[in-house]
Each structure stands twice: as C-alpha cells, then as structure tokens.
Design goal:
Blueprint lengths: L2 E8 L3 H11 L4 E8 L15 E5 L5 H4 L13 H14 L3 E8 L5 H14 L3 H4 L8 H14 L2
Parallel strand pairs: 1-4, 2-3, 2-4
Helix pairs in contact: 3-6, 4-6
C-alpha cells in the first residue's frame, strides 16, 4: 500500500521544507518537482539532482490559452510537461514516498500538480482544494490528471 506524503512550497521555502521532510520522515524516499519561470534560474535545492524533476513554464491558465497566438514568448504547461511528471513518478514510486512540489510562490502551479497527484493516487484532492492558501492552476491540474490516468504510473 502506498504511503504518500505530499508537500507544497514556494521556491523561497523549498529547502526548509525539504529539511523538515528529511527530519520527520527519514524512512521515506524523497523526490522534488521543481517548477520555475522560463526566464528564471533553476532553484538551488539541497537535494540530490537525481531525485529532482525540473520544469519551467509560466503560470498561465486555460483562459490565457485562448490568447496563445498573442503570447508567443510564453511557455504553457502542456502534455509534454505532464508526461515528464508521469515518467518521473513511475521511476520513484515506492511504498513510502514523500514529494515536495514547489513553484515560485507555492500557490498555483505547485498546488495544481500536488492536487492532481493526490487525486490520482488517493482519490482525494481536498487537501489542496479546501485550503484557501492555494489557488490551483486548473490548466495544469486538468492536463496532468489526464496524463496520470492515461499514463497510469
């Protein structure tokens, strides 16, 4: 049976959150999904690079995608990004797993990724959607959830 611990953080607090995860759950495999803006440098994380998936896309929604042709310099979350997450999870899925998902603010993109992972593996994403500190990006959530169900890691 899968024992999944999922954490959402901002870029600023990612290392502190990682330290807490390692302290409180040392027996868990720890992986990180690091999301940054395309024009920003990668987050400096105190973790083995092998266990970090680095993604870079703007915090754009389905409403923004209607104007995609007017936003040529913007990077949208897409099926390729979703497949990278699905593949990463397939590699590291173990009985005791902790996942830290961070983005720049820890509110939208990371919350969407965490919500989709929770929905797929536990059947319940209320931890994210009922918490007022999160505003999950529904474009990210829907594309990733579809990939998780059809990619079936």
């Amino acid at each position: 049976m899968l024992d999944l611990k999922l954490f959402v953080s901002s870029r600023e607090w990612a290392n502190a959150t990682l330290a807490e995860i390692k302290f409180f759950f040392p027996e868990y495999k720890q992986i990180v999904i690091s999301i940054t803006e395309p024009d920003n440098y990668p987050a400096e994380l105190d973790h083995d690079e092998e266990f970090i998936l680095r993604l870079s896309f703007h915090d754009l929604t389905s409403r923004d995608s209607e104007y995609r042709h007017q936003l040529p310099n913007c990077t949208f979350f897409d099926e390729k990004n979703a497949e990278k997450i699905v593949s990463f999870l397939k590699i590291y899925m173990v009985a005791q797993l902790s996942i830290l998902v961070h983005c720049e603010a820890g509110i939208s993109r990371s919350a969407a990724v965490a919500g989709a992972i929770l929905k797929h593996y536990t059947g319940d994403d209320k931890l994210i959607f009922s918490d007022k500190k999160y505003t999950p990006n529904m474009l990210v959530y829907s594309i990733l959830l579809k990939a998780l169900y059809f990619g079936d890691p």
